[in-house]
Amino acid sequence: MKSGNQRLLNIYIGIVLVFLALPIAVVIPAAFSADASLSFPPKGFSLKWFANAWNTQGFWDALQVSLSVAILASLISLVIGTLGSFAIVRHRFPGRTLLELLFMTPLVFPAIVFAVALVTVLGSMGLLRNFWGLVFAHVIITVPYIVRTVGATLAEIDRSFEEAASTLGANRSKTFFRVTLPLLRPGLVAGAVFSAIMSFDEFTVSLFLVGPGVMTLPLEIYYYTEFQMDPTVAAISTMLIGFTAVSVVLIERFVGLRKQFRH
Amino acid sequence: MSTAANGSIEMTEHVLPGAPRKRGASKKIWKLIGLVAPGVILLTVGLLWPFATMLHLSFLDQFPGDASYTLRNYTQFATDAYFLGIALRTFALAIIVTVLTAVIGYPVAWFLARSESRWKHLVFLAVVSPLLVSIVVRTIGWTILLGNEGLLNAFLVATGIVDQPLRLMQSFWTVVAGMTHVLLPFMILSIASVLGKIDKSVLEAAAVLGATPVRNFIRVVLPLSIQGVASGSVIVFCLCIGAYITPIWLGRGHVTVMSIAIYEQMVVMVDWPLGSAASMILTLVTLAVLLIYGLAIRRHAKR
Lengths: 263, 303
Hints:
By secondary structure, chain A is mainly α. Chain A has 13 helices and no strands. Chain A has one domain (about 50-260): MetI-like fold, CATH 1.10.3720. In chain A, helix 5 (about 95-110) packs across helix 7, helix 8 runs antiparallel to helix 9 (about 170-200) and helix 9 runs antiparallel to helix 12 (about 230-255). The two termini of chain A are about 35 Å apart. Chain B is mostly helical. Chain B is built from 13 helices and no strands. In chain B, helix 5 packs across helix 8.
C-alpha cells in the first residue's frame, strides 16, 4: 500500500518536472530546424539560424549592453548590499526591520509598478533611454539578492573566529581581510553571480527604460519577434540556456543553490 | 545644542552592559551610519521618491502642464467597462494561477522536504533551474509548444483528433498555463521550506495515537504547512498581477491585463497620470495582500 502511494508520487513528480522542463527543452531542437517557422518537430537540420543570430549586429550590441549593465549593477549592488547586510545582521538599531523590508521589496512587488515609479523619476532627470538610468534601475532590482545571500552567509559565520583572531593580536582591518572576508567569499560570489543573472534576464523594468542605442538582449529578442518569428530566436535561446547551465554549475560549486532560495 | 545633548544621553542608554566607554559607542554609531548610508540613499532615491512621485502623478488631471487634482484616474477602473474588465481579468488570472500552483506544487514540495530519495537533489535542481532561464526563452518555448506549427498541434493533427491546427495561442487559458509554469517554482520552494521544518516525531505521534495517513495529513500536516502555502501564495499572486511578458506574448493582444494597459498608457498614449493610478491600484492590492498575510501569521503564531 505504502509503496503504491510512493510510486504514484514519483510518477506525479515526473509529470510536473516534464511540465517545468518541456517549454525550455523544445527550444533547443527548434533552433536546428531547416524550416523558416518556429516549428516542432523540427523540419530538417540546419545551422543557418545560429549563423543568422551570429551575423546580426543588433544582437551583439544588445549583448554588450546587457553584459555591461549586469556586471556594473551587480558590483554596485555587491558593495551597497554587503554593507547593508553587515548592518542588518550584526547591529541592532531602530528601523532595522524597515530597512531589511525595503531592501527586499523588489522581490515581492510587481515589476511593472517599479517600472512606472522609476519612469516618473528618471524621466524628469532625463535618464530615460540612458545607459546609466538602466544601471541604476538594475541596482535596485539586484540588491535584494545580495542582501539575502550575503546576509545568510554572514549569519552563519561563527564570531568566535574573529574573536580568536583579535585575541591573537590581529587588528580590526587584518581580522576583516584575513578572517571575515574569506569566510564570506562564497556568499559574495553566489550573490554576485545570481544578481548578474537576474539583471541579464530582466525584462519588464528594462522595457520602459530602453531606447535606440540602449537595448538589452531580452528586449532585442522580443522586438525581433515582432517582425519575424523564425528559429533565430530559438538559436539565441539555446545559447542562453547553455549560459544558464554553466552558471548553475558555478553557483552549485561555490555555495549550493539552496542558500539562494531560502525565504 | 540641546539635541546633541539628548543624542548623547540616548546613546549612553543604548550601550550594553559591559560595553566599552562612551567614545567606543559613538564610534560604533558612526560605523553603523557608514554601513547603512549607501543603502538608505539608494532606497530613498530609487524606491521611496519614485513611489511618492507616482502617487502624486496619479491624482493629476494632466501631465505635463497646469494640472489640478482629481480622482478620475482611479474611478475609471470602477466605472469604465473597458478598464473594469482589465482589472477583473488581472485578478482572476492571479487567483487562478495561485490556486493552480499551490495544488500542483504541494506534492512536489512534500517530496523535496520529506523524501529520502537519492533523486531529491536532482529534482531540486530541476525545480529551480527554470527560474534562472531567461523569461524570453521560456516564452519562446511556449510558442513552439502551442503555436500553429507547434508540438501540441502536430500531435493533435497526426493522431487525427483535429483536422486543422487549433488556435491555441491568444487565449486566457494559454496565459494561465504560461504563468503557472513561470511561478510554480516559487510556490514549491515556499511550501518545501515550511514542510522541512515539521518535526517527524509529531507525525509519528499522531500515527501512534491511531490517526490514519489521510487524517494525519488533514489534521496535522496541512495546518502546520499552511504558512508555507500562504507565503507562496503571496509571492505568486503579487508577481502574477505585475507580469507583462507572458500575457502579452502568449495572449498576442487578446488577453489585456493591468500591466499591458499600464504599458499602453505610459508609453503609447503617454498618459502618465492614468498609468500611475493603475500602478497605484496594483501597489495597494499588493500592500493589502501583504498586510492580510502579516496579520494572519501573527494570529497563527499566537495560537
